[in-house]
């Protein structure tokens, strides 16, 4: 060992002297597992300390830790007996290190309630650490007492103890002190590498492990294990695997590399990018390697943890629980400890041991507060124990903790729990819980890449999701649950959720017919009948492929929906065939009979329809929906008295709290009281009592269902018409304050109708709002409400809505004195007559509107009417005369108008038509005068325009002449400038000829000089050309300046800076020479680069 007083001799034998003469040789490779005989020899020979520690270390190397400990303890006693206490420090260090090695194989904690892996008789790891610390301290005291120096061995032992007990900072300082003395100490380097890895300093840790490998390639523990772990953490998985494979080659008996390679193979088996065969092969390889690692070291928590999961997947719960207990007892990191408790909880949960499962999952959460699996497991057990509130608290607390991961699986579970109503919840609590569930599901969809505004398909975010999160996005049931949550909130979002669920169902290869049926129903409700029909037919096809019992129930509902869409598409024959087929399978199917009855009623076959409804009532007399339909049928067939009696029977004998029946009773009472025209005191009393009872029925319905919009609308009508006030009293003239009361009541009713509109998507609400606006003389708003009701809900086929529009436009026309509004009123009345051609009341209204239109135009001044409109109104008035005459002469016993009044209108029309010629003449004269004035004004405007155009043409002509004159002057100036330039150039040419002649004369005087001397010694002539050119340019500029400025030509020019001459495009030559650029001398020789450029 490092730090021994003397080095052991080389070789695999040790010689022990006995009495100075006898020597016993101990073969280290063939030691007896029982060291008792060897101990006697060592005592007798009074061996030195290095022999004791060498033999103890050899036993340790062979795995005989108890024998090694016995030798070391005997050495302590023997050395102390021979007065060699000062040399026992290495023995104490050996014992301390031995305790650390024994602690590695000891349980971290002992489960007192373990079922299969009981270890209550063993010592814990903490006990070994304490004993090792005691030995180390004893050795330190001995060394200090006797002055022996074993600093290296002591420091390493101290560092290992500190590292084992988790004192990373102290251990790092200890190892640094060792490395400062000996930088190549592999033990200290390994300790530093382990600390750096624990601190997630993977780059530093990798360098340290690589340094150890360089110093000692055969070092144990193998640094290649650490190298692979660092590379794996740094996402270099292929290199990590290569390091572990090399470790297996070098040390095939070590279990660590086998375990890590097995875990890597299991992870690779989960790669969906591989084929099924490749994944299966990886799984089998991983399983074999993990089993080999566990067999090599059955007290390793990581191997036990991995094997436990394998046995759980196989369903071998007994072995899985034993391995989970082994994991818990030997885990030295919180992650593995948490996994052990989770797997133990899963086993006990499967076995139905809920109390034990709760304990295990709770301990798992204590080990790691941020464990998602432990939280989900605990919540599942709480749900199993009917502790729903506890499960919600567990999940919600986890999600609200900022440090915990935001698990989409956990959010989906919490949302599903909140979406399910619990016993004892109030309606308010249910609404709040559903809102929370929707919010959680929205967060889940955003996390998995299926946002609430795009539930139809998952986007590319799924590539970054865990496999469980991806499976959650592929789960059709979750989106079905989302669709149910939005059933009462948003049809659009519910439809998107169902579409996503259907897409997931199709992706799994198993299409759910109920999903297709639900989507068809949504399309049906939105009026997309063709799409709904196709979906219903598809759903029927898929339902037929299921087993008989399931297919029958599904196909019945789907066939009924298909018959409804046939009915809405006006394919009566197909609808009747579908209903007959349903009734053939299920003769007591009441809904099918009701739809057949409704079809018969629409064809005016009320007796046949009545018979079908009676058959349905005979088989299901307590069906409230059926009774509600019968009430509606009686009202539609104008049997109000029978309907009232039937509703009262329903409330008395079946359900006095039926909201529909209460609303129907309120409507029937109100209708009966409103139609009561008896003016006697008794009749007035009955009328008032009817209105009061109607209001009581509506109020009771609202007490039972505060969101009942029908009851609220009924009360709003009572308020708007003041049914409990003037309308409920005598039918005499209105009271003085009737107008103010009418305005107040209609305002209050409008507020109610506005709220009802949010709940009832029906034209009656808009019609009632139109009545209120009409009562307030707000005719434009009334027309808007009536048109919404008529177009959106009744498709302009409802006579009542058309007549309301006619009345509103008529009132607006009288108020605004507008012939166009009166025309609109006439058009709506004619549309109503087209739908009911035999309604004489509508004919009377048409005649009245036509006569009123002519009267209106005759009453307005000519400026507010046109001859064309007047002629049209007079023509319509003539048609009204014929209608009034025929209506007055009608001999029918009952007519919906007053014949005398019709005759009076005819007579009034005759007198009005006699004035028509005067009005026509006046209108013609007025329009002729107005037209003459318009023509005169137009002529004056035309003359003024012509005068302005002539002035503009003259101005443009003057400008053109000025431009031509200026252009001519500029041309002459350019020609003069060019002439001056040519003159200057001729002068320069003459000067150059004179200089050349002078130069020739000087050359004759120097002709006796040698050639070389003449070239080199010839004086260079001064360059005066530039000066001449400059002066010439300046002269030209000065002359130009004098020309354009008007100054005298012989005036001395001022000194000015040189400017760049501007050349016109049409110049043949430049007016001014360009300035000279800086010149450079050329080289005497041409370089290679110059040749290449050329």
TrEMBL record:
Gene Ontology biological process terms from the UniProt entry: regulation of DNA-templated transcription; transcription elongation by RNA polymerase II
InterPro entries: Ctr9 (IPR031101), TPR-like_helical_dom_sf (IPR011990), TPR_rpt (IPR019734)
Disordered: annotated segments: 967-1094
Record-linked PROSITE patterns: TPR (PS50005)
Biased composition (Acidic residues): 1036-1050
Ranges of biased composition (kind: Basic and acidic residues): 967-997
GO CC annotations on file: Cdc73/Paf1 complex
GO MF annotation terms: RNA polymerase II complex binding
Stretch forming the signal peptide: none
Protein name as annotated: RNA polymerase II-associated protein
Organism: Dichomitus squalens
């Amino acid at each position: 060992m490092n730090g021994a007083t003397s080095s052991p001799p080389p070789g695999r034998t040790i010689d022990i002297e006995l009495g100075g003469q006898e020597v016993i040789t101990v073969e280290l490779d063939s030691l007896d597992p029982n060291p008792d005989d060897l101990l006697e020899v060592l005592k007798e020979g009074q061996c030195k300390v290095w022999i004791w520690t060498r033999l103890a270390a050899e036993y340790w190397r062979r795995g005989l830790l108890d024998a090694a400990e016995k030798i070391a303890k005997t050495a302590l006693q023997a050395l102390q007996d021979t007065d060699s206490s000062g040399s026992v420090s290495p023995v104490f260090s050996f014992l301390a290190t031995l305790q650390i090695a024994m602690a590695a194989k000891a349980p971290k904690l002992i489960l007192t309630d373990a079922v299969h892996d009981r270890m209550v008789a063993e010592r814990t790891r903490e006990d070994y650490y304490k004993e090792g610390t005691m030995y180390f301290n004893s050795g330190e005291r001995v060394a200090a007492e006797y002055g022996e120096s074993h600093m290296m061995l002591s420091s390493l032992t101290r560092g290992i103890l500190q590292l084992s007990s988790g004192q990373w900072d102290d251990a790092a300082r200890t190892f640094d002190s060792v490395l400062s003395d000996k930088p190549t100490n592999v033990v200290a380097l390994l300790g530093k590498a382990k600390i750096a890895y624990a601190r997630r300093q993977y780059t530093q840790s990798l360098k340290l492990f690589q340094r150890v490998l360089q110093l000692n390639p055969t070092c144990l523990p193998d640094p290649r294990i650490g190298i692979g772990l660092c590379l794996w953490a740094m996402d270099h998985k292929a290199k990590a695997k290569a390091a572990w494979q090399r470790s297996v080659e070098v040390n095939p008996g070590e279990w660590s590399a086998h375990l890590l390679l097995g875990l890597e193979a299991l992870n690779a088996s989960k790669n969906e990018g591989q084929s099924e065969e490749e994944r299966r092969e990886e799984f089998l390889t991983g399983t074999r390697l993990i089993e080999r690692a566990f067999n090599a070291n059955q007290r390793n928590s990581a191997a036990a943890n991995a094997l436990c999961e394998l046995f759980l997947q196989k369903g071998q719960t007994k072995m899985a629980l034993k391995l989970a207990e082994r994991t818990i007892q030997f885990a030295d990191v919180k992650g593995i400890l948490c996994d052990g408790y989770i797997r133990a909880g899963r086993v006990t949960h499967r076995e139905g041991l809920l109390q034990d499962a709760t304990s295990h999952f709770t301990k798992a959460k204590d080990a790691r507060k941020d464990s998602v699996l432990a939280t989900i497991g605990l919540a599942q057990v709480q749900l199993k124990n009917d502790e729903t509130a506890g499960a919600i608290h567990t999940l919600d607390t986890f999600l609200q903790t900022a440090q915990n991961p935001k698990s989409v699986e956990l959010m989906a579970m919490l949302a599903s729990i909140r979406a399910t109503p619990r016993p004892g919840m109030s309606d308010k609590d249910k609404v709040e819980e559903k809102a929370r569930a929707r919010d959680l599901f929205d967060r889940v969809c955003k996390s998995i890449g299926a946002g609430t505004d795009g539930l139809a398909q998952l986007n590319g975010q799924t590539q970054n999701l865990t496999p469980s999160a991806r499976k959650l996005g592929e789960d059709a049931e979750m989106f079905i649950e989302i669709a149910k949550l939005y059933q009462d909130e948003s049809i659009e979002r519910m439809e998107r959720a169902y579409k996503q669920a259907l897409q997931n169902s199709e992706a799994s290869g198993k299409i759910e017919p109920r999903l297709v049926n639900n989507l068809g129903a949504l399309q049906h409700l939105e009026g997309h009948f063709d799409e709904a029909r196709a979906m219903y037919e598809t759903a029927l096809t898929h339902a037929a492929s299921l087993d008989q019992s399931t297919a029958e129930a599904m196909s019945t509902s789907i066939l009924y929906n298909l018959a409804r869409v046939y009915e809405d598409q006006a394919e009566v024959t197909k609808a009747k065939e579908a209903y007959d087929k349903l009734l053939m399978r299920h003769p007591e199917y009441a809904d099918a009979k009701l739809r057949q009855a409704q079809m018969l009623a629409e064809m005016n076959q009320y007796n046949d329809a009545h018979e079908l409804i009676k058959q349905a009532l005979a088989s299901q007399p307590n069906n409230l929906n059926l009774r509600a339909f019968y009430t509606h049928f009686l009202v539609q067939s104008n049997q109000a008295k029978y309907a009232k009696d039937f509703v009262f029977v329903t409330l008395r004998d079946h359900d006095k709290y039926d909201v529909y029946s209460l609303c129907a009773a309120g409507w029937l009472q109100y209708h009966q009281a409103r139609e009561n025209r008896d003016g006697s005191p008794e009749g007035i009393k009955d009328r008032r009592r009817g209105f009061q009872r109607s209001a009581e029925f509506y109020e009771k319905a609202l007490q039972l269902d505060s969101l009942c919009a029908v009851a609220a609308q009924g009360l709003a009508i009572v308020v708007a018409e003041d049914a409990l006030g003037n309308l409920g009293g005598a039918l005499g003239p209105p009271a003085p304050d009737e107008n103010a009361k009418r305005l107040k009541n209609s305002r209050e009713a409008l507020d109610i109708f506005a709220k009802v509109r949010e709940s009832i998507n029906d034209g009656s609400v808009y019609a009632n709002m139109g009545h209120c606006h009409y009562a307030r003389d707000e005719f434009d708003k009334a027309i808007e409400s009536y048109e919404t009701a008529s177009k959106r809900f009744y498709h302009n086929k409802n006579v009542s809505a058309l007549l309301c529009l006619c009345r509103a436009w008529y009132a607006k026309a009288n108020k605004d004195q507008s012939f166009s509004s009166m025309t609109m009123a006439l058009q709506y009345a004619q549309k109503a007559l087209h739908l009911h051609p035999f309604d004489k009341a509508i004919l009377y209204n048409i005649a009245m509107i036509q006569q009123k239109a002519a009267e209106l135009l005759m009453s307005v001044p000519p400026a507010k009417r046109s001859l064309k409109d007047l002629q049209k109104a007079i023509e319509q008035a003539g048609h009204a005369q014929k209608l009034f005459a025929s209506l007055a002469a009608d001999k029918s016993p009952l007519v919906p108008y007053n014949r005398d009044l019709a005759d009076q209108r005819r007579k009034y029309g005759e007198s009005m038509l006699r004035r028509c010629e005067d009005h026509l003449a006046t209108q013609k004269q007025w329009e002729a005068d107005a037209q003459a004035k318009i023509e005169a004004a137009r002529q004056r405007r035309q003359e003024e325009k012509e005068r302005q155009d002539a002035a503009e043409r003259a101005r443009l002509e003057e400008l053109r002449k000025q431009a031509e004159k200026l252009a001519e002057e500029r041309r002459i100036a350019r020609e003069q400038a060019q002439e001056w330039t040519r003159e200057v150039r001729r002068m320069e040419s003459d000067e150059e000829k004179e200089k050349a002649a002078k130069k020739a004369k000087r050359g004759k005087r120097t002709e006796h000089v040698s050639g070389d001397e003449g070239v080199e010694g010839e004086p260079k002539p001064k360059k005066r050309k530039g000066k001449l050119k400059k002066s010439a340019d300046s002269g030209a500029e000065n002359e130009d300046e004098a020309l354009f400025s008007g100054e005298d030509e012989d005036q001395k020019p001022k000194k000015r800076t040189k400017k760049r001459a501007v050349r016109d495009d049409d110049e043949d030559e430049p007016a001014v020479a360009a300035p000279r650029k800086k010149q450079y001398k050329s080289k005497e020789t041409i370089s290679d680069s110059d040749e290449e450029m050329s």
